[in-house]
Amino acid sequence: MNRSTFLKKLRMTLITTFRWSLALTFLIYGIAKMFSTGDFIYDSPKDSAMQLAWHFFGYSNTYNLFIAFGEITAALLLVIPKTATLGNIIYLPITVNITILDFCFEIPARSVTTLLTCMSIALLFFEYKKLKRVFFDSPVAAETSIQTGLMKKKVNIQ
After folding, report:
1. What is the C-alpha separation between 11 and 90, in angstroms, rounded?
2. Which of 48, 96, 116, 136 is deepest in the core (most CB within 10 A)?
C-alpha cells in the first residue's frame, strides 16, 4: 500500500470513527433527556454550581425535549453519510454550549465534552473543501445546450 492510499484510508477511518462516536454519544444523551425527571428543590447554601445547573435544565420538560430533539436529530444525521456534514453543523453549537456550561458550572464531564467538541471541529476541517464550495465560492455559470427535435436548432441557456 502506497502512502497516498494509506492517508486516504486513515482519513476515512478517522471521519467514520468521529461521526459514529459523536452520533452514539448524542443519541444516548438525547434519549436519556427524553425520560429524565428530577427533584427540583434547590437549597443554595448546600448545593453546588453543578447541582444548580442540573436543577435549571431539568426544571422544564419542554426545554429538555427541545435539547433532546436537537441531539437526536444531529446524531441521526451524522450516521447517514450524505447528511453527516449537516448533522455536524447542528452538533457543533450544541456541544460547544454544553462544554462551556461544564466549565462554568464545574461539571465533571468537561473532558468528555471537550473531546466531543474537538472531534466535531475536526470533522468540519475534514469537510473544508465542501463547506468552502457551499458557503464561500461563487456559483459557476453553466452553459447548457439543448437540441430541439422540431427545428433542428440549438438553444443556448445561460
Report:
1. 22
2. 116
